[in-house]
Each structure stands twice: as C-alpha cells, then as structure tokens.
Specification:
This protein has 118 residues and is mainly beta. It is built from no helices and 7 strands. It has one domain: Thrombin, subunit H (Beta Barrel), CATH 2.40.10. Strand 5 and strand 6 form a beta hairpin.
C-alpha cells in the first residue's frame, strides 16, 4: 500500500536507547523520538466508534481502540506509542503486514491501538 493521498499523518513516539538505570537496576529509556507517518487511515476498531466504560472506585475509566493502517514498510514496534490527533495511544499486540505471494503487491501495516482514560 502506498501512502493514502487523503490520509492522516500520525506520529510514532519511540523511546530512545537506555542511557541509565534506576535504583532497582532497570534500564531507563532515553529521550523519545517523534517519527511522523503521513498517508495513514485511522478507523474505530469495532466499526461503530464506541468505547467500553468501566467504573473503578470513584473514577470512570474509558477504553477505546483504533485500527491504524500505515503504508507498507512503516516501522512500528510493540513498545511504541502513536499520537493520533491530540491523543496518545498504546500499540496493542503485534503489528501485521501482508505481501501477496501471487502478485507481489503489498497491503498496509495494520496496528491495533488502545487509549485508556480516567
């Protein structure tokens, strides 16, 4: 899939390499790199735009998901976050892509995104 001519630009937020460790010996990620990806399609995951709603204690928690379709070859990792508009989503699960064994044509990189608020 080529860049969509009327697609949206999203930004991949990728943690930089570790430069230090915390007091427990865990690596602390470095500065976040921002990688713009133009020509993407973004759609609600369930096709209706609805989200799940859960009451936890005295707070309302809303979990919503999107499916991101990025141009073939886009490097998106499970450890990345993705900015869509003003919201920052977590990558959920593995990223998928497809190349036809018959024609060699390529499809988009498909990414499940999740946003938890509240």
């Amino acid at each position: 899939m080529r860049e969509l001519p009327h697609g949206d630009t999203v930004t991949i937020l990728r943690p930089g390499p570790s430069t230090s460790q915390d007091i427990y010996g865990n690596d602390v990620p470095g500065a976040v790199a921002e990688i713009p990806v133009p020509g993407c399609a973004v759609a609600p995951r369930d096709g209706t735009g609805s989200a799940t709603n859960e009451i936890v204690g005295d707070r309302d928690t809303v979990i919503s998901g999107l499916t991101l379709y990025a141009p073939f070859g886009t490097d998106i990792r499970a450890t990345d976050r993705v900015r869509v508009g003003d919201d920052i989503y977590e990558v959920e699960g593995h990223v998928g892509s497809f190349r036809s064994p018959f024609s060699g044509s390529t499809g988009p990189v498909v990414v499940a995104l999740e946003l938890v608020t509240g």
